[in-house]
Write a structure and sequence with these properties.
11 helices, about 280 residues, alpha/beta, single chain, five-stranded mixed sheet
Length: about 280
């Protein structure tokens, strides 16, 4: 298989990167690949070298790989290099168009570069650092909730056992860490006037407290980009977190009806949607 540029994209410079847990496989315009460690220092050196050898680079293309690409995306945004986090299905179908069935890191990097050369891709909008940090704290909060629930359930089996006291202590510690994570997330939301305005608007709705409002404010960016479908499972989970909202809305509309009932019919929520657009 010959991986060459065509006349229509001969002036473009695109880097394809296949991200894994430990390494990044890099190809420029579908050429030979090079490998660097997936760590901050090697990525910064690569970006510096890339800007030196290709100062007019058009795009860096990579796939989402379970979060292993986040460090790369963050450093590219800091360097103001446009990048595209493309859907894996698009890249996979593009590879199949070359009648290629093999799958290696080097081949994926080359194909991602060729995919960027053959398409006029729009760059991915970087996430605001404050929003990113707040999402990290809310993710930690969700994980702590699961861990606390597991320990609480285990306590029923540990009654009278020597590890009961230690388990209770660990559970209480996790509860305190969860409260600290929520405080950090709320403090970051207050640093962004637009986010805080939406947060206060949501909190004014009966049944919506600090936690639910914070989750919804941090999800609104994905709604604005047209990814509302991916947010539905999160909203169903959130409705279950508020007993008042579940009783008032869940019985009448169900999970999906609750979402549209509370977010499309409510006048205050229509104002909330208008602030996003």
């Amino acid at each position: 298989m010959s991986l060459t540029q065509t006349k229509t994209n001969s002036n473009k410079i695109v880097a394809g990167i296949d991200a894994s847990k430990d390494t990044l496989e890099i190809s420029i315009n579908g050429g030979e690949t090079s490998t660097i460690k997936n760590a901050a220092s090697p990525i910064k050196r690569f970006i510096k070298r890339l800007l030196t050898t290709h100062p007019n680079i058009n795009m860096v293309v990579f796939e989402p790989t379970g979060g292993y690409e986040r460090k790369l995306a963050s450093l590219l945004a800091e360097a103001e290099i446009p990048y595209r986090r493309c859907h894996p299905n698009f890249a996979h179908n593009f590879i199949r168009s070359y009648s290629v069935r093999a799958k290696t890191d080097a081949l994926n990097a080359k194909m991602l570069a060729l995919y960027g050369l053959s398409r006029d891709l729009e760059s991915t909008t970087p996430i605001d650092p404050i929003v990113k940090d707040a999402r990290c704290w809310m993710t930690m909060d969700r994980q702590l909730v699961k861990m606390t629930t597991q320990l609480t359930n285990r306590l029923h089996l540990l009654e009278g056992e020597p590890t009961e006291a230690a388990t209770k202590k660990l559970r209480d510690t996790l509860k305190e860490e969860r409260k600290a994570a929520e405080r950090e997330a709320l403090a970051l939301i207050k640093e962004k006037p637009d986010l805080y305005k939406r947060f206060r608007l949501l909190k004014s709705i009966p049944g919506f407290g600090d936690l639910i409002s914070a989750y919804l404010v941090l999800l609104c960016r994905s709604w604005a980009s047209g990814a509302a479908v991916r947010s539905v499972p999160c909203l169903v989970w959130l409705l279950g977190r508020t007993r008042a909202a579940s009783r008032q809305v869940g019985a009448a509309f169900g999970a999906v009806g609750a979402i549209f009932g509370r977010f499309c019919i409510c006048r205050r929520c229509r104002r909330f949607v208008s602030t996003r657009t």
